[in-house]
Specification:
Blueprint: H1 7-11, E1 18-23, H2 36-40, E2 44-49, H3 53-61, E3 67-70, E4 73-74, E5 79-85, H4 98-101, E6 113-122, E7 135-138, H5 144-149, H6 152-155, E8 160-166, H7 177-186, E9 189-194, E10 221-228, H8 238-251, H9 255-269, H10 273-282
Parallel strand pairs: 1-2, 1-7, 2-3, 4-6, 7-8
Antiparallel strand pairs: 5-6, 8-10, 9-10
Helix pairs in contact: 8-9, 9-10
């Protein structure tokens, strides 16, 4: 495959704005924004949610163009308890399972509850500040399923979801990967990829050669990327297809699936974007396919 390029830049004036909703938007020191390549395109409007007020204030203080952050607890709209932990990113609407976490290196130590308080959660579908969702990034420590079920209206227009999933319930009563997968498939999405390497820890007292945070074999969590069912791409609008292709190419380097989205775009519009993309991607005429990337 040729050198990496920006599909958004290649599309030029026909590249649409992407409405990105970030649920659990807290910035962890030293960590790069999960969707930084999309921000570089200049085509993103971001509405983010971070319920820890001090963290929400930090995000708004950056005064980024087309970014707005709100201190809502996203969930199912009911009253819940919020468990603030000593390492704030592990705080959750679910209580950490200390007995389970303590079996692993450096997990229980990062999930100790320092304060528990009643809060009112808000459904995504009830938030007036969200006018639409094209791309949903969500990481709220076990409450993702509640958010999906409370956002079916808005998610009907989404093309990509990146969600944290756990394979083992690290919090008491939390849904795990199988539950998330079932719900998102019900809403018309299919698993595309795991965005990060699968994370975990070694069981005590053993430790991997790279230190206390390395897993041996036990998987615990990762970020999973879901996309609209590729068998129904032709039912999407031309704008949705371009947004889907841009996210897949510019953020996840999924050229093969972006290719399918652009083929559907050309069928729907009568344009010839797909051939230009394939030529730019491979340096070859699409008539010479198949191509080894």
């Amino acid at each position: 495959m040729g050198a990496q390029f920006s599909l958004a830049q290649m599309l030029g004036k026909i590249a649409p704005m992407i409405d990105l909703v970030d649920v659990g938007a807290m910035s962890v020191e030293g960590a790069q924004c999960d969707y930084a390549p999309l921000l570089k395109t200049g085509l993103c409007r971001v509405v983010g949610f971070e319920p820890v007020q001090s963290e929400c204030d930090k995000l708004n203080a950056r005064k980024q163009k087309n970014h707005r952050y709100l201190p809502y607890f996203i969930g199912d709209g009911t009253e819940r308890r919020f468990h603030l932990t000593n390492f704030v990113p592990t705080s959750s609407l679910f209580e950490p399972d200390a007995a389970l976490l303590s079996r692993f290196n450096n997990l229980e130590e990062l999930c100790r509850v320092v304060e528990s308080s009643p809060v009112k959660t808000t459904r995504l579908d009830d938030i007036t500040e969200i006018t639409g969702i094209d791309f949903l990034k969500i990481d709220i420590q076990g409450a993702e399923l509640d958010a999906f079920r409370g956002g079916t209206r808005l998610l009907a227009g989404a093309v990509v979801i990146c969600t944290e999933v756990e394979f083992i319930p690290l919090y008491k009563g939390q849904p795990v990967f199988a539950d998330i997968d079932s719900e998102l498939r019900r809403q018309g999405f299919l698993l595309h990829m795991f965005a990060d390497s699968i994370s975990g820890r070694a069981f005590k007292p053993l430790m991997g050669p790279r230190g206390i945070n390395e897993r041996l074999n036990q998987v615990l969590w990762t970020d999973a990327v879901y996309v609209r069912n590729f068998m129904t791409f032709d039912a999407l609008s031309p704008e949705q297809l371009l947004k889907l292709a841009i996210i897949l190419h510019d953020l996840y380097h999924s050229a093969d699936l972006a290719n399918l989205a652009l083929q559907s775009y050309d069928r729907v519009t009568g344009k010839d974007v797909w051939k230009a993309y394939m030529t730019r991607l491979t340096g070859r005429n699409p008539g010479e396919m198949p191509v080894f990337l």
